[in-house]
Protein 1
Amino acid sequence: MDYKLVMNTAVLAGEMMLRSGAETYRVEDTMYHILRTAQTETVEASVMMTGIVATISNPDMEPITVIKRVQERGTNLNRIMKVNDISRKYCAGELTLKAAYEELKNIGGKQYRVWVYNLATILVPTGFAPLFGGGILETAAAAAVGCVLALVVTLGKRLQINGFILDTLSSLGIAAAAILLKWVFPSLDEDIVIISAIMPMVPGVAITNAVRDTLQGDYISGGARILEAFLKAAAVALGVGAGMALAGLIHPGGGIL
């Protein structure tokens, strides 16, 4: 048995799942099952939101311990599903260790092209506007503001802007664009447009995972996820408030109030 390859496979699987938004207990369970195939006396896998620690050892060998820092996180359920499928096939003996490791390395980063993500970013506000009581005008305005959001997010990711700053800038652009449209169309309900446009930014998955980790007893990861969701919500609120304040200082005719 190649103990190092078993460890590398388990850590790679855990890292990919954690970066894709999987719950802490799910990552630990997947890593534990992979490490158990080494048939060592000691098998430990400890996962936190920002890092992984794994150890295997036998009385006749030096312990193998790996610490992996995980900084980038997002939501990619397709990647989680693929990692789960590979790990289950390996543990069931349907894949060799080397084949499982190679398949994990070959899992792509993004499931869809950038234009598909941007299209979804536009369609989500468009779909929420009627649900919040908006008419045809609000729905069209939400689609236009969604275009602004897609543009800001795409540029921000290419420039590798920090997540908190990017969320603030995105929500600022949403508020400013909605108020500008209000000046052009006085009958427009800008509140519905703003609320609809920020829906793609709501940290629903982070809050759900925070609750699930906390209920599983992973209080460190649960607390960290709650803090992450709070910071994201604070960034959105800060950006919307700043955008409304900035737009309110500028008179539609170009003068300063």
Protein 2
Amino acid sequence: MTKIKFTLGLLLLSFFSISTSSCKNDIDLSTAPTISFKDDIQAIISGNCAMNGCHGTDKDSDFPLTTYNEVMNEGGVKAGDAKGSKFYQVLLINFGEKKMPPKGPLTDKQIKKVFIWIEQGALNN
């Protein structure tokens, strides 16, 4: 039994080392289309996040995500670092109370667009 636990421990440690050692520079976005905040990201946010009672402009909103500056500041976007950006991180949580958006996760295509936009510098384009 101890041998099995040791082996499982080594496997988990190996997996953790591999998953955390990959550098964000390993991601090749040279063939990725340019993602536009105005045309792509704002549409995702408007349709899924910026509604009354969530991240819209009403008084019951936790914090608004209706403008580029709000997304960058309130959303904790770190241009060029999607994995280090709060906005991207919360989109990956699709269970429990912290699930965003609460009505259900974004599509893989939408999450990929957010990732690429942030990695491309999170431009206000």
Protein 3
Amino acid sequence: MSEGRGPAVETKLETTGLHVWFGDRHALRGVTLSLLAGKTVAFIGAAGSGKTALLRSFNRLHDLDPRARMHGSVKLDGAEILGRGIDVLALRRRVGMVFTRPTLIAISIFDNVAFGLRAKGVADRLALEERCERALRRAVLWETVSAKLDRPATELSMEQQQRLCVARALALEPEVMLFDDPTAALDPVAGLALEEVIMPLRRDFTVLIATNNLEQAARLSDTTCYLANGEVVESGETPLVFSRPSDRRTEDFLAGRPPGQP
């Protein structure tokens, strides 16, 4: 290693010429991006800009939508994930996702967290308990639920349910965490509390967040990508994108101006 040079940061996720359609709607238009391992990336843009479509491409959730078609390349650690023969369930264990609203199963708190582990083949009760406790602690939920793990998960508050969804994803020990506007359904206080859960995850995971909250993007991310009409308009270090955007369209969006208005 040359003197004064830090360790190389590897590309974790990469898209090349990525297109996504939902029926006749062209949601992503030739997106090419390289996202570094261990970084937190925020995707910002107006509704319908392609933020969620891009996020879902990274663990092939579009496979669940019969209207969806994808073309192009998405690579995880340099390996193509869009080809046939990919173990999609294994991919989703490596790339966990938390949605805008909690997606709980109508079972107990413990069984929600253990669900993916059991599907993966973890049957030992002690191993399940240890991994579930570790995940709940990372989601800052253990102290709240440790005495009622057998209670229905739906009894939790909305914020606690969202934390439980984070724990369920973390239990599988993923490499990448995707968050699709995770605080949109929460009040401001609960939203900030959930951000406090996400913040330390940035030390151990590659984190991608699609958000309509510009302040949240600025607080949480290392890199910000601005999307419009299915295209990446600008991508760069978050402080620079917010303070000195290089594209007028980004500047207009951040200022709340209609595109092209003086």
